[in-house]
Every structure is written in structure tokens, then in C-alpha cells.
Amino acid sequence: xxxxxxxxxxxxxxxxxxxxxxxxxxxxxxxxxxxxxxxxxxxxxxxxxxxxxxxxxxxxxxxxxxxxxxxxxxxxxxxxxxxxxxxxxxxxxxxxxxxxxxxxxxxxxxxxxxxxxxxxxxxxxxxxxxxxxxxxxxxxxxxxxxxxxxxxxxxxxxxxxxxxxxxxxxxxxxxxxxxxxxxxxxxxxxxxxxxxxxxxxxxxxxxxxxxxxxxxxxxxxxxxxxxxxxxxxxxxxxxxxxxxxxxxxxxxxxxxxxxxxxxxxxxxxxxxxxxxxxxxxxxxxxxxxxxxxxxxxxxxxxxxxxxxxxxxxxxxxxxxxxxxxxxxxxxxxxxxxxxxxxxxxxxxxxxxx
Amino acid sequence: xxxxxxxxxxxxxxxxxxxxxxxxxxxxxxxxxxxxxxxxxxxxxxxxxxxxxxxxxxxxxxxxxxxxxxxxxxxxxxxxxxxxxxxxxxxxxxxxxxxxxxxxxxxxxxxxxxxxxxxxxxxxxxxxxxxxxxxxxxxxxxxxxxxxxxxxxxxxxxxxxxxxxxxxxxxxxxxxxxxxxxxxxxxxxxxxxxxxxxxxxxxxxxxxxxxxxxxxxxxxxxxxxxxxxxxxxxxxxxxxxxxxxxxxxxxxxxxxxxxxxxxxxxxxxxxxxxxxxxxxxxxxxxxxxxxxxxxxxxxxxxxxxxx
Lengths: 353, 307
Known about the structure:
The structure holds 2 protein chains of 2 kinds.
Chain A: E1 24-35, E2 38-50, E3 55-59, H1 66-74, E4 82-91, E5 94-95, H2 101-107, E6 112-115, H3 119-122, H4 129-141, H5 145-158, H6 164-167, H7 177-189, E7 195-199, H8 207-224, E8 227-232, H9 235-241, E9 244-249, E10 252-258, H10 259-264, H11 269-276, E11 334-337, E12 340-342, H12 347-352
Helix pairs in contact in A: 4-5, 4-7, 5-7, 7-8
Chain B: H1 2-29, H2 34-39, H3 46-55, H4 62-74, H5 87-122, H6 127-141, H7 144-158, H8 172-201, H9 204-211, H10 216-244, H11 248-253, H12 259-268, H13 272-300
Helix pairs in contact in B: 1-13, 5-6, 5-8, 5-10, 5-13, 6-8, 7-8, 8-10, 9-10, 10-13, 12-13
């Protein structure tokens, strides 16, 4: 179907010796969906960075913009309707958004790779897993079909798929859910990416397999030194594997910090609500405390702090401090203590009280 | 797979027997006397009429006629028409003509329909997509009879690009009738491909393919197209079976001596043996190409396995 000449590329967009500093820096990224019914503001100015070997967890409920921001980094947004309305994505010091399409393509795979939530639908049902893993080598390194398959077997071994050599020609539907996710991981890791984005990698798996897959990811990260962006709403997973966490709400980052800090002393009422909604072994038999209300409609994000309609601490009018009216003034993401940022007018009260 | 194909082929035997009986019964039930019709205005002596009736078993009850027909079939005798021309000879005379017409039609259908559908599907709601939408709607809504006469008038008579009728100029004379015959299916293939491609463009595995940094062409050709072809192959396969059954209107307008014309003439003349022979053959083709489609499924989609 395709001649081999279409595959040869030397990936000049990838620097052999990355400059010091974070591997990936997202700066003030805005993504909007321009639909017939108006503009949906999915991501509204998020900034974060990931260092080599670091794990950043991005936490948030459905529709908070965590997956959309990852897709923006990968350049796989469905556009139209999605449009990157502003900001920058620096990979090894160069802004991906300013690169041409071919340079962007060369970063996908060897530079930044991604694994998806549902491996069954994310793998093409009509090609063998070995072929799909091998495609990475063929597309980026011009490897022959036969050699690519050999690489695929090695990778399947590396992600601990039993009898890899025998299973390389099997199709995705012939694997169990956990094994399929391993195939996805093998494919993403094929070219030793500097950054791996894992978009809810364990959500579709059952609990015992979840732990195995997370352990595997952790081991592979230790071996390769890649930065890991873990997108999830599973607080347990975050607690176990992440170094830092960024909490997203309505397309904004509302709190960042180390996992220990954020989990033990949240500086934003939304994070407090998230922590309260974790089932606790000690509180067995009691009721869980949900966050009341609905996530905001991204086409009509509330004024001021987007969380104010659901916030138990929200203050407005006479009760609010000057310029810190939760209904009128959007709280900026600001440093609240060393190494921590939160977007709440009253973080200090939460931290100190 | 081999066993599956063998089983399916064996299953066609009862279907063909049933179909041929139904057709036989329908011809039997036609009003009017075929021998009188054969004679036309000329007087027919009762002796000759009786002799003809006996020769073609027209006096027997339906079941006896059918049993005699099946009996002859065992030594590959499909009977004759009223002019003593063997049905087998009629078929071998007419079938190549229809086969050529079908081949040309399917070629247009597949090539033009697929290409138009793929480009429309890749850029959904774009300019080309709308062009395909409007033109295919137009083609589907015009009856083939009008389309046939119109194209014959414009391209055959006025512009003189193609022969007006007949098959005297070899393959070239099949182009215009083939295109007319294909038009409806062509439009349908384009629409089907367009929808299928557009749907697959949003599939998760296409997103994965882009995230892998595959070149755009590979994403489309390898990860979108093959998955989109499955419903299209089904349609084209079934359509080959239908087209081989002859296109009565197209063959009539362009004066092409194919199977469709033969069966039409035979029904008018109540030539039972001819109708049954040809229509049963059509049924066989239809079943056969459906089997081909089912086998192709397994080739295109490894999730489908027989046996």
C-alpha cells in the first residue's frame, strides 16, 4: 500500500543532547472547541513542566480538560472543531506549535509518546500487534518489515508479555485487557520517548491488573529516565506513583504541589472535596462525602472562581476581602507555600486552619 | 475455511432446486396459451398444436412437468425454446455479453465510487463532500430509463463520442451502457464509502496511528481505508450478483443482446424452459458472489473466522 520511501526520516526535530531544564514545558495553553452551539473553552491557560524521570499526575473529573491538553501536546486534537487558541508547548526548548507538520510528526513517537485508556479500541483490529508495534520502527527509522517484527518481539518481552515470539502475529482481540494495555505500552515505548503521556492507562482494567500495569510503567520509567504525565481520576494511583500532582478544574490548574503536600494539606476547596470523597478504611460503613453540584458547562464557565457555585467556602459581597470576591474575581494560580501553587483566594485559611 | 466454503456450496443445491420450482410454477401460472402466441395471427392446425404441446409437456400438470424438467437436468439438458434452440446455447451466447457489461459497470462502480467516497469522507462537510452529496443524490433520484436515454442522446447521438447502440465496436461499445448501468450503484458506493471513512477517521485507532507519528498517507491508506472497506465490499459483491442477472432496461435501450434481454423475451413468450434455466443461473450467481463476499470478510477482518 505504501512504498518504503515514505518512511525514511532522520528525526532532525529531536535534539541529540537535550539542553538542561525541563523536557516538556507547557505555557499558558488554551484550547477551545468551536462548535455550532458556541465556543467550548476546554483548556484555559494551563502551564506545567515535566523533568526527566519525573512523574506528573494530572488529576481532575471528566471534562476538566486533562485529556484535551494531552491531545494538544500530541497534536492529535480533532480539528475542527478543536483549536489551540494560544500558548506554547516547549519540547526540549523548542515550541512544538511553531514547528511544521513534518517536524511535529517526527516528535510523535521518538520524542513524546502516548498510551490511551481503552487499548481494545485504540489498537487497530485488523492488524497484528507485532505489525502495529513494528510500524514505529518502520515509520521513524525506515527499518525493514522483518527487522521491525524482531524489535516488536523484544519490546513485547520487555513489557512482560508471555511467549512474545509466538504471540507477535496475534490480533488485538486475541489478548486479554491487561495484555492489550501492555501492547499499547510496548508500542509507545518503542523509540525510547523522552516523555510518555498515559491517559487513564488503567481505568479500563480490573483492579489486580491495574497494579501490574502501574508497576510495569514505574519500572520502565526507572530504566529509561523518561518523564511521565499520568492523566487520571484515580487518587490511589496518583498517591502511589506520582512525584507531583496538578489538579484541574474547568480547564484550569487549580492546585499543584508534591503528592504528599497536596494529599495531606490541600490548599484549594476543590482538592479538599476530592480527598473527602476517597473511601477510607477507618470510616467503613459511613457515607462518602461527595462534592455537591455538577461540573461546570465549559461553554458557560461561571464568573470569578469557576468552582464558586460548588464551594463551601465561597465568599461574595460584604463577606469577601477586597478584590477577592469569589463570584467576581478569578483567583490566579499563585504560590501559597514553598513549592506549592493554588488558585484560591483563601488558600491560607485552608492551610492554616 | 475450506470446509466452510464446501458447506456453503452444498447448501446452494437445495436453494437452487427450490428457486427453480418457484420460477417454474410462476411461468406455469402465466395467463394465455404460449402455443397460440407462438403462432401469432396465422391459423394453427389442431394437430400441430397438439404435437407441440406434447413436445413441451404443456398438457401435463405442474408437478409432472417439473419432474420431467429435473429428469432432463440430470444429463445437463436444460431443454429448448419453442424454436428447438437449446437453452444452454442461448445462455452461452448471451452470458459473455452480460458478463462484459457487468465487468465494465463494476469497474466504474468500484473505482469512481470508492475514490469519490474516500475523498469526501476524509474532508467531511468540505467542498468536495458537498459536491459528491449533491451529484449522488441527483443520480439516485433519476430513473435509469431516463438516464439511459439521456446519455444515449447526448453522448451517442449529439456528441458522437460513443456508439449509439449495439456491441459491434468491442469493449468500447460497453463503456457508455456500463456507466449508465453502474450509475445508481456508483452513487451508493460513494455514499457508503464516505460514511464509513468519515466514521473511521474518528476511530480511536486512527488517533493512535497519528499519535505514533505515522505519515498522513499511511494513517489514511493503512489505518482508515482497510477498515472502511468492509461494508463497501459487501455491497459490491452483492451487486455483481445482481448485475450478472442482466439489466433489462439498459440492455434494451442500448440494444445489447445479453441475459436480461433473453429472459425478458422468454417471459413474454412464456418459454418456461428458457426462463427457468436463466433465472436459476442468476440465483446461483447471486449466491456465489455472496459467498465470495463472506470469504473476503475474513481476509479483511481477522476477527471474523469461519469453522
